[in-house]
Amino acid sequence: MSVSIKKLQLFEATARLGKLTTAASELALSQSAASQALKELEASLGYVLFERVGRDLVITENGLKSLPKVRQIADLLDSLTLANVDTMSGVLRIVASATIATYLLPKLIATFVKIYPEVIPEIHIGNTQMVIDYLDKGKASIGLIEGPAAHKNLQITLWQQDKLQIFCPPGHPLAGKGTISIEQLQQQSWVLREQGSGTRAIFDTAIEQAGARINLAMELTRQDAIKESVKAGLGLGCLSQLIIADDLNKGSLVVLESPLNLSRRFALVTHKSSHHNTLTQTFIDYLTTL
């Protein structure tokens, strides 16, 4: 069986980028050469790695099983390349859920890049489910999520503490009291994050544990849209304390204390079968010592 490093790199890049043309460009290959190389790799392995659906390439089940091993080979090669190099360099691929990516990650990345100026961060932002999908498909080396999650192929390590807060506009009837009961929770309309987000999962779990049911007015994927909708009087909101801190200081939103358990832990997500290269492991160590 003849399997070259270049062909394995092409497979990994195609799985990560979702398009053979983009992967070929990253590896400085022509479209025809990349297509031929992928066919030769599949012939050598004895199974199909991708299926064409319309104009897209969709990785097969055998491809998904092989991808962690191929990424491990790539990481080992990176480690070998950097073994005798004093400077840390390369692309650091991170996928993070929205709150972390917006309110925590920029400062963390800025400090890390000051220490290692030759590192190039590549950051993707989505909800918790997207983070899990990216890690599972090998599109990123490190994931950061806000809500509870489990996956057979992924290692999920608890990281930093956070708390969700229920809030309303200052003119709301409950604003003067600063509290909300379970009965009042069920009487209000709500503007919340979408299903699949960590924030929504924590809120739904807390409501279920309280034996309550709420009136959902809107689901939105953007935190700023939720805050503006609450300010406009469309309902109550529930977001991380990190997101609404400035609004509380300005007096444009008011926190309502409730009996709900809205504490949570951010988590670090990595692939169980991946051997982390030097750059990835250094960033993981940096995060876990904060």
Automatic annotation (TrEMBL):
PROSITE patterns: HTH_LYSR. The keyword Transcription applies. Transmembrane segments: none annotated. Keywords: DNA-binding, Transcription, Transcription regulation. One of its GO terms (molecular function) is transcription cis-regulatory region binding. Residues 3-60 form the HTH lysR-type domain. Belongs to the LysR transcriptional regulatory family. This is LysR family transcriptional regulator.
